[in-house]
Amino acid sequence: MFGGKNKNTRRPIGVAVGTTEVVLAQAGPTGAGDALLAAARAPLPEDATPGSPGYDAQLAEAIGRALKQGPFVGKSVVSAMPAESLQYKNIRLPKMPEPELAQAVAWEAKERVVLGERASVQFYYAGEVRQGQDIRCEVILLASKQSRVDEHLRGIVGAGLTPTAIDATGAALARSVTRGDETTFAIYTHPAHVEVVIAQGGRVLLAKLLPVSEHTAQDPAELAREIGLCLRYHSVTFRGEKPARVELRGNPLPAGVADAITSALGLAVSETGEQGLFAIAAGLSLREHDAEMKRGAA
């Protein structure tokens, strides 16, 4: 989806914070669509762990180093925290108008989210699904300790940037690979897990983290099977259009996994090479004010 010439109009800088590095990207609208105008990566120190003393300063320093590597413009930032810092929970609520979901999710979060302190909660509204004879609202809830959110924001500000929104990696990934209203099956490979996202027209329908271990490298069919179960869940729950292909982004998968995915799902795997490492950061940069992510508190 990226291409065209720079018209000197920039979207916010996307800052995707991982467990081992920070990834920055900035897009801008052109006559041929959005172009990736700046992109950079910088490693985090080996001892940089969310919640540890000095982590916010380490994060700020890494972001600062990445900023110097590319022609980034402006200070506005849409960022994402490491997926490992979030709890993911699928919940189903009674059918209700979409504007009322935020309050309902907040109440559910009080019962379901146990973090030992005040939590910050976001959610994807996946849509209406049938459960028995009833119509329910499918919601994917994401929660983090508020102290982790505050620490993350201090790192952004410490790098001299202005945070405008915190998004989730799944929403950003869907945004960067979706074309029009098609159903998209996207996989982003992190160092220790893969993130599976199924979306339609940018609306996240499924988001799941699957671990990648030494066992996975020895038996790629096992990971492919788990990814296949995600597609099966989507097919049974939403009975919508089947994705035409798998969009693979991020770090290289262990040898044989891509072929195993093709075999298990019956779908072609589309890869973009090194540019795929910036897919989530680019999706953050593309976030609009009316993005599909909702925010609440618990």
Protein architecture, described:
This protein is of the alpha/beta class and 298 residues long. The protein is 29% helix and 36% strand. The protein contains eight helices and 14 strands. A five-stranded mixed β-sheet has the order 3-2-1-4-8. It has a five-stranded mixed β-sheet with strand order 11-10-9-12-13, with helices on both faces. Strands 5-7-6-14 form a four-stranded antiparallel β-sheet. Helix 1 (55-67) crosses helix 3. The longest helix is centred in the last third of the chain and has 19 residues, at 220-238. The radius of gyration is 19 Å and the shape is globular. It starts with 12 loop residues before the first strand and ends with a strand. Mean pLDDT is 87; it is low at 1-8 and 289-298.
Task: Summarize the topology.
Blueprint: E1 13-17, E2 21-30, E3 33-43, H1 55-67, E4 76-80, E5 87-94, H2 101-112, E6 119-131, E7 134-145, H3 146-158, E8 162-167, H4 169-177, E9 183-189, E10 193-200, E11 203-211, H5 214-218, H6 220-238, E12 245-250, H7 257-265, E13 268-271, H8 279-285, E14 294-297
Parallel strand pairs: 1-4, 4-8, 9-12, 12-13
Antiparallel strand pairs: 1-2, 2-3, 5-7, 6-7, 6-14, 9-10, 10-11
Helix pairs in contact: 1-3, 4-8, 6-7
